[in-house]
Design a protein that fits this description.
Blueprint (H helix, E strand, L loop, with lengths): L1 H7 L7 H13 L10 H6 L15
Amino acid sequence: MEQVLRALCFNEPTAWVDKLPYANFIISDTESATTKVTPFFAAHGHHPRQLLEPPSTED
């Protein structure tokens, strides 16, 4: 968690509290080398919905 937060907060070290949901998502959606599944998938049986949706292409 510390390494992820450090990377997320490189430009804004005091904003680490705001970045906790992103850090949690990154860690929960990272595949384990041992099990070959993510912690989220192991607990819930499906992959998580993306936190950041791609920009809409509608005009």
